[in-house]
Amino acid sequence: MTKLLLEKEMIYALIEAVRLAEEIKPSQDAKRRAFRKYGILGGKRDPLVTAIFYGIMKHLGILNRMIKEITGAEPLILDPWFRAALRTVLEIIVFRNPSQKTLKLLDKPVAELISHKTHPYTGMYYHKLFETKLKNYKYKPSSEDEEIEYKYLLPSWYVRKIRELLGNETDELIRSLDIPLPISVRVNTLKTSVDKIVKQLKKEGKQPEVSKIAPTVIRFKGPYNFEKSPIWRKGMIIMQEEASALASLILAPEPGMTVVDIAAAPGGKTEHMGELMKNQGAIYAFDVNKLRMQRLKQIIRRADINIVKTYLRDGREAPRILGEEIADRVLVDAPCSSDGTLMKNPDLRWRLRPEKVEELSKLQYELLEAGWKLLRKGGRLLYCTCSLLREENEDVIVRFLKKHDNARLVELKGPYSPGFIPGTMRAWPHKHRTIGFFYALLEKK
Ligand code: SAM
Questions:
Q1: Is the confidence at residue 433, as pLDDT, over 80?
Q2: Once rounded to an integer, what is the mean pLDDT over residues 403-424?
Q3: Which domains does the chain have, with CATH numbers?
């Protein structure tokens, strides 16, 4: 393995990006900001430093364990700059085979940065730590859980849950969560056609491939600068994965219908439903997140969809606000652990928590109940998530079906795999080259 050779600014940019990534999400935005400051962004050094940055994000749980072993303190109580420096330095020492020159830069220059950002004592403490423990540090997992986490770079409880679901396929699935997906966009057919966008993308030097499953979805290899793309700015394409696009196709709202999108932002599916409805009828879109709601408004404005009424309110209040049995279609695209999107959000893995799954499944169930109240007899409701966990998917539906004998699961016969209860469906990253997704279509008898 060749030795890693870094320059001081590259190390500083990494530490700053790691520090900012604690506050700015997605972490890609934090990275961009720090890389710009140190003149790394878009330059020759960018790909290497980016790879190390994502390495740190992926190893975060393991790096924290190393920090605890070395300092004797929980990483979260340390000064954030000191913590970011330790994470960066350990990533380079343990996983990146640094050259002697790089190792030297990890000593005093990093201590200087820490002194500058925190307090000279912290810098001095770091320098001492470097000499005594860091520079020759080797990590050895010391329990079965630690071994699992080291092997899979995922929390051990999570790996166990996936193993319960997939058995022998677990390794393949987890490997697939590391393979970046191509860029995926959906064409707004109210404004243009798939053919025209394919032609345009070819002109831009891309090799677009039209999805066989969601025929208005086009995929191509990145990078792609959306901000500068006229077809994106004019609302002709919307960023969306194939599995997400399929949700609105399954719910199939028609022109003139009344639709409630109970957790709608940032609005990819709201826009899609508006398009399927040919901009006729009404969509009531709820979400609690102001920033994401602003993005929803931008997306529908850009796409010229004008049948959406937005509510910055809890979806569970929707039946009280809109009245019961008023909707022909309800979409419950529930807030979830989002572990089906790990290939797009690598640092999410260490924020997955079993307590959070429990909390989410309660909220998911309550949103589903609210959605059901809104639904007219004969109407249809789609419950979906981008989580792979049974607790957030089949378990929510089983509990719901037990309580409601006027609910019927409409069988989904593909194009993806059957879920773990008959009639439901799952998209799997290792099988379908898209994000992980769960779908259950319910009809009110
Ligand atoms: N449907 C969206 C789309 O296709 O762009 C994605 C929705 S995302 C999976 C889940 C959303 O639920 C988040 O935007 C989150 O802010 C929202 N949310 C969380 N708790 C909520 C609640 N109690 N009521 C309504 N929305 C909620």
A1: yes
A2: 97
A3: 8-134 (1.10.940.10), 144-176 (no CATH), 242-444 (3.40.50.150)
Sign of CA dihedral 320, 325, 328, 331: positive
Q: Is 386 designated active site? A: yes
d(CA 397, CA 422): 11
Q: What is the pLDDT of residue 227?
A: 85
Q: Which atom of ligand 1 is nearest to the CA of 265?
A: 14
Ligand 1, atom 19: nearest CA belongs to which residue? 335
Cα 51 to chain centroid distance, Å, stands at 18
- The alpha carbon of 262 and the centre of ligand 1 are apart by a number of angstroms equal to 7
Beta carbons within 8 Å of 378's beta carbon, 6+ residues apart: 443, 444
Evaluate: CB of 383 within 6 angstroms of ligand 1. no
Q: Atom 8 in ligand 1: which residue has the minimum CA distance?
A: 335
Protein residue with least CA distance to atom 10, ligand 1: 335
Location of structure tokens 């330790």: 86
**Mean pLDDT throughout 317-326?**
98
- Measured CA to CA, the distance from residue 358 to residue 344 in angstroms comes to 24
d(Cα 243, Cα 239) in Å, to the nearest integer?
12
CA 289 to ligand 1 centroid distance, Å = 8
Q: For 368-394, how does the pLDDT look when each residue is reduced to its tens digit (9 = 90+)?
A: 999 999 999 999 999 999 999 999 999
Structure tokens at 264: 């709608």
Kindly give the distance from the C-alpha atom of residue 336 to the centroid of ligand 1, in angstroms, as a whole number: 9
In this structure, the number of other CB atoms found within 10 A of the CB of residue 58 comes to: 20
pLDDT-derived band at 25, boundaries 50, 70, 90: confident
Residue 294 CB less than 6 A away from ligand 1: no
154, 183, 386, 397: the catalytic one is 386
User: Which strand (E) or helix (H) includes residue 293?
Assistant: helix 290-302
Ligand 1 atom at minimal distance to the Cα of residue 335: 10
Q: Is the pTM here over 0.70, yes or no?
A: yes
